[in-house]
Amino acid sequence: MVLTVLVAACALIDPDGRVLIAQRPPEKTMAGLWEFPGGKVEEEETPEAALIRELCEELGIAVTPACLAPFTFASHAYPEFHLLMPLYLCRRWEGTPLAREHSALKWVPARELSSWPMPAADLPLIPMLRDLL
Predict the structure, then answer these.
(1) d(CA 77, CA 83)
(2) pLDDT per position as a tens digit, 91-117
(3) Within 10 A of 31 (CB to CB), how many other CB atoms are there?
(4) Mind listing the domains of the chain with CATH numbers?
(5) Could you tell me which residues are beta bridge partners of residue 35?
């Protein structure tokens, strides 16, 4: 039986249409790769609630459910588990994103996202973001 892991991710979009990506720290799997912020959805938690919690923990920003727009999702088979990752768009939040749990943060124009090394599950999301922005 394959373990399916549900992870919610967010494309934070600034007024210039750039997307925030975060670099995974050295102590985590896939260290050094860039990803969309977010995290694992806990038991009895909605993806939106998980995202609000994770964005606060990881970036120190406050997001309300009304500011999260479901956009698309990724479904990817890693050797150890299958990842199901809904991606939400967010253009409004309170606070300034800080790298609390990541090595670095970077605002990147959507057309340049494919230039950054990302986990395999994130790659199919890039063309959709590029087409939107």
Answers:
(1) 6
(2) 999 999 999 999 999 999 999 999 999
(3) 11
(4) 4-132 (3.90.79.10)
(5) 22
